[in-house]
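I am still getting used to backbone structure tokens and would like to learn alongside you. Please make up or recall a protein chain and show it to me in full. Would you write everything just below, so we can both look at the same thing?
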Amino acid sequence: MTETPPDLTYEQAFDRLTSPGSPLELETVTGPYGPERRFAHAPPNLGSLLDRAEAYGERTCFHHGQASMTYRAFVEAVRKVAAGLLAHAEKGERVAILGANHPDWMLAFWGALYAGLVPTPLNGWWRRQELEHAIAYTRPKLLIGDAKRLAKLQIPETGPLPAEHVFCWDRPDAHKRFLPFSVLQEAVPAGPYPVTSEDLAALIFTSGTTGKAKAAAITHGAWISGLMNGLLASMIEVTRRPGLQAQSDVVTVLSGLPFFHVGGGHGLVIGGIAGGQVLIIPDGRFSPSETLRMIETYRVERWSAVPAMVQQVCQHGNPEGRDLSSVLTLGYGAAPSGPALQQSAEALFPNLRAITNAYGMTEASSVFTMNTGEDLKQRPDSVGRPFATAQLRVVGEAGAPLPTGETGEVQVRGPFLMREYWEAPEATAAVFAPGGWLRTGDLGRLDEEGFLYLSGRQKDIIIRGGENILAEEVERCLEDHPGILEAAVIGVPSETLGEELKAVLVTGGPDVPGELAVREWVGQSLAHFKVPRYVEFREAPLPRNAAGKILKKELAERGTSQFDEML
């Protein structure tokens, strides 16, 4: 990265961009828990961002394989889809989306948002059991997706459907009960529709402490606050270092994150379209060589990914000698990373001027801290400063705030937080501390300048390649096997994925499984990324404390037995 000092301090750039009369002006208002910052000129709903995006006209909106579309055509198509959806559903009803990253995924998502419906993305890597739970839980009126992932639901030829209508965008002839997604685009455009900042915008699934996936209910206002926070943080860095500005007036972004996660949905599908970016949507599975080809072909200036993707690309190198000089910024989050990854990225991309690491969670509409540029170089182990409308604190076991520098649970508060877990009042009450503070379940500390450093997790969650995996869910699945008496699942370090799953098992009875059978058993019910890569069999019972809780720290100190490649 270019070794140039910033022209302004962070505080100077912040004050300049948020001053009275500016688009990102901040004001202090009386919130439900006292004074809080809000953006004075926040748009009323996400649909208004689409209306503004129409001004980008003939600019390319996306490239996907051989397909592309201008902004004018994209906005027109979204309005048609919105009208088509409202012919089958009413405001506030859910529209489930199940498919790989695809232009029609974006049309379905934006169409539902624009119409005042509630898009409910389903994880495309889930198995049938997980998908059926999500559908039964959210009760979508409509289901839209691609044939490959819809097939996981094993929709019957007769009888109840998972939703009132099922639309397929790529092979509607794959099932006699599929309707072509294209029919929704035959409607006469209407709108804008009456949607307020308090209306529900989306249900986004997140891992929870119960083992069953819950959906964070995010309002239009919360999502907009998160978008404007991210925009302000980026603008501060560009204001401090004008060299970070894109080489043209249009930023081309390689969208490597899955749209069904809050990072891809919020940062790319919503933020990218609202910001007039050119989105490069990979067609097919992630591939390091294909990633580099797309960067060269489309002159990508920003690549958004998870650390595991960046690690694989850096390990792959550039054997074909592609021109990677267009890449100016690299953004990643969702999993731990360190200085070594930053150095590898700088070595691969010759004009890389800023790397951004961020921290957030689905319940907070996306990220709420960011570390980038010179700040990241000076504090490579920090996830950054809190966003403008975010309040952070670190608390001890009794829930009282801790002094600067001491480690405890990280809690966050602000207008970007979810309203609740969908139809889960007990879980909602458990995740919010008194005063509206969201319990992140992560351990960390704040330094004197407000930078956050994470040190671990309270929740028994393993992060594999950016995917949050609840150990309890995998353990329960393992213990359903008749030959497994006890199961403990822990995370072990991985150079490429951050962590991998290891299962420690006590077996018995006539049906004792081998390593391969263990993997196959989990893979039948859970997504592939939840399948343990390592297994250890024990004869003695698993170590437990006086309360009966398994001592996982002791298990993590033992060796592993490696499998063949993941399913």
